[in-house]
Design a protein that fits this description.
Layout: H1 16-66, H2 71-154
Helix pairs in contact: 1-2
Length: 157
């Protein structure tokens, strides 16, 4: 036997599991992007130090060049500068590659954010539709009660 009272069902978003999974994916992308950002910052620092070292050594070499430098010193400087230029070129390439990875991870994060936001919009629309349905049901119930009261008052006793 039912008492006439119906329990209102709470809104349940059918894609809630997918939304939670998308949030997890977004968090993972944010972590990966943060790690790559740290790597990129460290590699940029290394590159800047190498470039500063190159500038300092060039200035030092020019000062010493005004004086007398032996051929052995010139050879040492030349080898040192060659090695330093190789290190700078290698570090530049490593930094560029990390920047490319960073941009890829940014795009992946952006896509994950878009997917999550789309699911959240669907959830909001579903919730709005659910609330509208509840309001219509409540209005119908109130109308029925009012009609019943009206009919009771119209009937002669």
């Amino acid at each position: 036997m039912t008492t006439g009272k119906r329990r209102a069902r709470l809104y349940r978003f059918n894609l809630e599991v997918l939304l939670n999974h998308q949030r997890f994916i977004e968090d993972e992308h944010q972590k990966a992007l943060a790690e790559i950002r740290l790597q990129l910052d460290a590699q940029t620092d290394v590159l800047e130090r190498l470039l500063q070292k190159e500038a300092d050594m060039t200035a030092q070499f020019k000062k010493k060049q005004n004086g007398a430098l032996s051929s052995d010193d010139l050879i040492l400087y030349r080898h040192y500068f060659d090695r330093l230029r190789e290190d700078v070129a290698s570090q530049r390439e490593l930094t560029r590659e990390t920047e490319r990875c960073f941009r890829v991870k940014q795009k992946e994060l952006l896509e994950a954010v878009k997917k999550r936001e789309m699911l959240e919009q669907l959830r909001k629309k579903g919730l709005s539709a659910y609330h509208e349905k509840l309001l219509r049901k409540e209005q119908a119930d109130l109308n029925e009660i009012a009609l019943g009261a009206y009919n009771r008052n119209r009937m002669p006793s």
